[in-house]
Amino acid sequence: MTAVISRPAVRTAPASPGRDPFIDVLRVFGMALVVLQHWSMPVLSFAEGRIVTGNALATGNAWMITWISQVMPLVFFAGGAANAISWRGSVWRGGTPPAWMAVRLRRLAWPVLPLAAVWLPLPHLLLRLGMPEQPVETASRLAGQLLWFLAVYLVAVAMTPLMLRLNMRYGWRVPAVLAVAAVAVDAARFGTGLEVIGFLNIGLVWLAVHQLGFLYADGRLGRPWIMALTGYGLAAALVAFGPYPGSMIGMPGAAVSNMAPPTVALLAVGFGQIGLALALRGPIVAFARWPGVSRVLGWAGRRMMTVYLWHMSALFVITSVVVVGLGVSTPEPGTSAWLSGWPHWLLMLALAMWPLLRSFARFEEPPAASPYTGGMVRIMVAAALVGVGLLTFTVIGFVPGPAPVFGAGAILVGLVLTWSAPAPRPGTSEAVTSSGGPRRALD
């Protein structure tokens, strides 16, 4: 699947480094839909010390909602555009690739530390207070699974300098090659029955949509309605005639998931979503420039990571009180009781989220630090350690045991490596090299 390019290229993004209100809207809108979906789809009941979970989107044809509500492709696209704009701004200011990586790595990993600080001891505390073991283990595992996104996004960030160079040289051919490789992976996965092969698409699919963000930042994505129709049309054909399920999220009991690992069907839906968003770019930008909307975007943009990391914790709080504590099950999805109770459920979750937001939003911004002066090897080691920690939480969660402690330690050590010692005072012998530039670490 290739990106549709108009020649001459249609300018859709600012030529100079700076914020793009369209990308800001996509990021906030994407995060809002992620939270809304996670809060709306659980079907919960509690009996005999065990919590039973289901998915409201598995009811009837509700899976069709996921073709819009599964916005992770749109989030990676917006992230690609934001990374391209940020990187070029750094280059324009004279920054280096390791210094840019250090800043992005701190912003990505620092907010995870308070999550780990709360969730590492919390399961032990809940068990000591008499909470049933199975609900505690379920919540502890799910609280960490959310970090899959940060682990994959970290790879995209680390590869941004290289992928931007490829973008400058080959343009739309880069996501096209990634898409073709994803097709080959799916063919091998379904042809051989070896599910493990499909996990190669974690890199290929998400890097492909991230790369489309680079093309947008260059102003090289044109004909958005053709993109939308091509993407959604291809996805419909793959679902109708291929081995792919209709839902773009994993469903209970489904033999195949389009999400874990991602498939070409999800990539096609993502392509369609990006085209649809670009087709509406004009009204979206005009809407974003309204003073009230602009203030809301600014407020939400500084809290997106906190909302993402903690919104499932808010769900666990309400579930523990209503479902486990009071024994009230959620209504059958699609019934009048479910529809009438849904706004009240969301209100309770928002009220539970508010103190978490007030408490932890301060960690969105890492502590002030001197510009990173270490080398690329050190910053790549830091990225690898943070990635290992995030992957540990993704697989294990915060279930009691040594693994989550190891994951938190890896993230902490990785973050420490992103900080440099304060620069020497001007005039000292260590302040400059023979060429007059700042001294860099030899690693």
UniProtKB/TrEMBL annotation:
Example GO molecular function: acyltransferase activity, transferring groups other than amino-acyl groups
Highest taxon, organism lineage: Bacteria
Region (Disordered): 424-443
Key words of the record: Acyltransferase, Membrane, Transferase, Transmembrane, Transmembrane helix
TM regions (residue ranges): 61-87, 108-126, 146-164, 171-190, 196-217, 224-244, 264-287, 308-328, 340-357, 377-399, 405-421
Domain Acyltransferase: 21-353
Protein name: Acyltransferase family protein
Source organism of the structure: Streptosporangium subroseum
